[in-house]
Write a structure and sequence with these properties.
Blueprint (H helix, E strand, L loop, with lengths): L1 E11 L4 E10 L3 E5 L6 H8 L7 E6 L2 E2 L4 H5 L2 E4 L11 H8 L8 H10 L13 H13 L5 E5 L7 H16 L3 E6 L2 H7 L2 E6 L2 E7 H8 L6 H13 L2
Parallel strand pairs: 3-8, 3-9, 6-7, 7-8
Antiparallel strand pairs: 1-2, 1-4, 4-5, 9-10
Length: 240
């Protein structure tokens, strides 16, 4: 069952078009959204959340149109970009105090757990954090209100290899609890480690939306790693 569904999204810019993008995100599954920089990953994610307004198409969460049920749905989903750049001079503990007021399902115990896991000092301000720690702080916010769907734009960007592995393990734990995890990345090893499904976008169009096994069966040649396959597909697309 798809807990998030994107139907025929179109967003036109002078130099780029998000062209008829459609796919679903399953409950209790990890979906990797892959494509090179500039392929349309961030535009798609921002369109899904009404952070930018698509020219046409529809997004549903839990079977409900997002635009007509935005407040209700936002209580049940979590969103994180790679970094945090708001309230740069406020202490983390003060930001948390503000953030929790927006969510009926805010889980103080989960917030403490992730703060300890990510080794976040709540007396610091975002401007005092490294890029990797900003990523962890943003993820802690997304994970602290019992979200049923996590939508993450380049969540492993800026993380060291150990922290990336730690985060992917968290994704696997959340999956076991029935949470749907949808994350964009250009780091193919992250997909290989934890993804159940792959949505592959190139030049603003969805090339494939399938299970990882089906993707490999369809696109990979014998002896290729997933990274080899992606590099070859992108080279072929650049010459098309």
């Amino acid at each position: 069952m798809s807990v998030a569904e994107v139907r025929n999204l179109v967003k036109k810019y002078p130099s780029f078009v998000l062209d008829d993008v459609s796919f679903g995100v399953g409950r209790g599954r990890i979906t990797g959204f892959i494509g090179r920089n500039g392929a349309g990953k961030t535009t798609t994610i921002k369109s899904m959340l009404n952070l930018i307004h698509p020219d046409s198409g529809e997004v549903l969460f839990f079977g409900k149109p997002f635009l007509r049920n935005e407040s209700e749905i936002k209580q049940r989903i979590g969103y994180s970009t790679g970094t945090v750049n708001w309230y740069p001079r406020k202490r983390i503990r003060d930001i948390l105090d503000i953030e929790k007021r927006f969510y009926e399902t805010w889980d103080a115990e989960a917030c403490r757990k992730y703060a300890e896991l990510f080794q976040l000092d709540d007396t610091k301000t975002p401007r005092e954090l490294s890029e990797g720690m900003k990523v962890k702080f943003n993820l802690m916010l997304a994970l602290s209100h019992k979200a049923e769907v996590l939508i993450l734009d380049e969540p492993t960007s800026g993380l060291d290899p150990f922290s990336r592995s730690e985060l992917l393990d968290i994704f696997t734990e959340l999956k076991a609890e029935g949470v749907a995890v949808f994350f964009s990345t250009h780091i193919i090893s992250d997909i290989e480690k934890c993804a159940d499904d792959i949505v592959y976008i190139s030049k603003g169009r969805i090339v494939s939306a399938s299970s990882k096994e089906d993707f490999i069966h369809t696109f990979s040649s014998e002896g290729e790693t997933l990274e080899d396959t992606m590099l070859r597909l992108e080279k072929e697309a650049s010459h098309a």
